[in-house]
Amino acid sequence: MRSLTTIDGKPDAEAFVAYLLTMGISTHVEPASDPLSKRFTENPSGNTQEDPPGISPTRPTDAWEVWIKNEDRLPQAKEELKTFLANPKDPKYAAALKQANLILREQRQEAKLRQRNIQSPNLGDQRTSMFSGKLPPLTLTLLILCCVFSLLTAFSTPANENRLGLSIVKQLKFVDMDLFAKTNDPTASLQRGELWRIFTPAFLHGSPLHLLMNMLALASLGRLVERLVGIRRYAVLLLLIAAGSHLTQGLLGENVLGIQGLSGSPNFVGISGVVMGLFGYIAVKSRMRPDLGFGLSGQSYFMVGILLVMGFAGDIFGKEGGLQMANFAHLGGLVAGAILGLLSEARRS
Hints:
Layout (H helix, E strand, L loop, with lengths): L1 E7 L1 H13 L4 E5 L8 E3 L5 E3 L12 E6 L5 H13 L4 H29 L6 H5 L6 H16 L10 H10 L4 H7 L4 H4 L16 H22 L1 H21 L20 H17 L9 H20 L9 H22 L1
Antiparallel strand pairs: 1-5, 2-5, 3-4
Helix pairs in contact: 1-3, 5-9, 9-10, 9-11, 10-11, 10-13, 11-13
């Protein structure tokens, strides 16, 4: 660790080190202290004299010393210091404070996560501990909502006398299917301002097995991501993945790329696209940040690959209707999650 400079005023010191942090330069800041046992000042005549006992020299009382933790980054830090001293009021330094706070919050969360792994009773298998334990609140809420809506709608096929179930299906699907039958436009409901439909198909499921498989996967992957990024960022992540997954599935028409049977459809249900997005996010995050102490097994990658291959192959080479899987929702969610994982790491660097 090497000393870089001393900055007068805590606000300026905070702004500068925050900017360095956004550039990946770690610092240590402490109140500046005079290393001399006796302080000297210059009197009006120009002669140097020792301060009288109990009298402090004329110097800033709010000075902060900035240290660079990684000496390899010291040359870059010196260049940034020159730029800062030339214009310390540049708006980019004030803006860096907010971004630095986000970075620090993420670092604290990751540190807690690593500590939780270390303290796990199953030290021989950290991966297992990462995917176990009490369900965090948002993941638990999603599990409950999916189960409730699936049961109320008799797994998306309510009887005619089940008015509540019929209403739920009508309102939660990507498009009002009655309206779609008239217009053949998958965006018909969205054009009416019903934007919640971009997200709500995830709450419906087509069968008990469909629900069970998705809930097991969500409980495993969701608890990890929610612990890793915190509930607010997790909520944003879920919304972005759901949008990528559902828009891909809902807006793609028949015979994509001219391939017979390779088709999207707005008539889909299930949270599997979101689950695939969480898988993609974890896959990228764990490979780019091995220090986090978790990862996905080779078997997991194999199963996801088989799911995608069988799904698309079933549509292309199988009977009409294929395997009745929302394959583009799976693919769109997986890609969206992977991109978000890459972006989260790019922001750190």
